[in-house]
Amino acid sequence: MIRKLAPLVFACAAVTSVSATADQLDTVIQRGTLNCGVVLDFPPMGYFDENNEPAGFDVDYCNDLGEALGVDVNVLNLTWGERIPSLVSGKTDVVIGSTSDTLERAKTVGFTYPYFVFKFQVIANEDKNIDSFDDLKDLKVGAALGTTYETEYLAYAEQQGWGKDNYTSFKSENDAYLGLYQGKVDAIISTNTNIATKLRSEEFEDFEAGPYVPNYDDVVGIIAKRDEVAWINYLNLFLVRQIRDGNMNEAYNKHFGTDAPADLIQSLRDNK
Fold first, then answer.
1. Are residues 79 and 133 in the same domain?
2. What does pTM read for this prediction?
3. CA-CA distance, 107 to 74, in Å (whole number)?
4. 223 and 113 share a domain?
5. Are residues 241 and 113 located together in one domain of the fold?
6. Are residues 196 and 62 in the same domain?
7. 224: which strand partners?
């Protein structure tokens, strides 16, 4: 009887061992669905198209990742502030949400290699005549809560002794642009890519792009749970293949109207 039970015990132990060591990569493949978080009020990286379907550069990357894994893709709409909590809670498997790779965030989540680089920039009505970043000193300025450009602006304002009295933090990117349009603030800080998209719209025809945040390039990565090393390794290889196979350039051309700049491609190849 003991000899008959022994193989069964060992088999159960083996199954338990496999289950215990299964990681996020295994989980996604076995589930058959990738839960991919994207900020969908940040065109052209993430937005809703005319059919109210998720679209954008980041959404294309979600779909490419799902295709590589051989699974379906469930795109989840997140605010800036929900990106990290969605991973911690298990709501998302991965967030492709233009997340700046700061050392502070890396204490909570794991980052991949960079997949895009932004500039932080001012947008304001043409009549504000903003020629330099220091012209913001006496203006009402805003930005979306939880963004790196909010952090960078506030750090610069503190360094210059401006204080925070004229600053407004908005819940989302859309709220920031709405506040600018309605005159609640004189200027907002956003990314060069989003500003370029907004300036093509009728609502912002009287606005213009202003100066960049001094001495700052915003390098962003995909984020996942910090302890999912095999999953992050897979995501890193995915990003390498996106460039090597031409998918990155195809997505850039689709959403920005030109081929990806050579210096951007080289920067991503160098992982910086």
1. no
2. 0.81
3. 27
4. yes
5. yes
6. no
7. 110
Beta bridge partners of 75: 36
| CATH number (domain holding residue 155) | 3.40.190.10
At 66 the pLDDT is 98
Distance CA(60)–CA(58), nearest Å, equals: 5
Is residue 73 pLDDT above 50, yes or no?
yes
Is 256 among the domain residues? yes
Same domain as 229, residue 102:
yes
Q: For residue range 123-149, what is the model confidence (pLDDT) as tens digits?
A: 999 999 999 999 999 999 999 998 999
Q: What is the residue type of 83?
A: R
pLDDT at 17: 41
CA–CA separation, 50 and 121 (whole Å)? 27
Total domain count for the chain?
A: 2
Mean pLDDT computed over every residue of the chain: 91
Whole-number Cα distances in Å, 187 to 69, 112, 218, 229, 238: 42, 32, 20, 41, 38
The span from the CA of 71 to the CA of 113, in Å, is 23
Query: Which whole-number Å values give the CA distances from 65 to 6, 75, 77, 111, 164, in the listed order?
Result: 42, 12, 17, 16, 41
- CA neighbor of 188 nearest in space, from 173, 206, 171, 199: 173
The predicted pLDDT at position 5 comes to 47
108 with 170, same domain: the answer is: no
Q: What does the pLDDT look like over 20-43, one tens digit per residue?
A: 457 999 999 999 999 999 999 999
Q: Which residue in this structure is represented by tokens 């920039």?
A: 121
Q: Are residues 91 and 147 in the same domain?
A: no
Contact status, residue 18 vs residue 12, Cβ threshold 8 Å: no
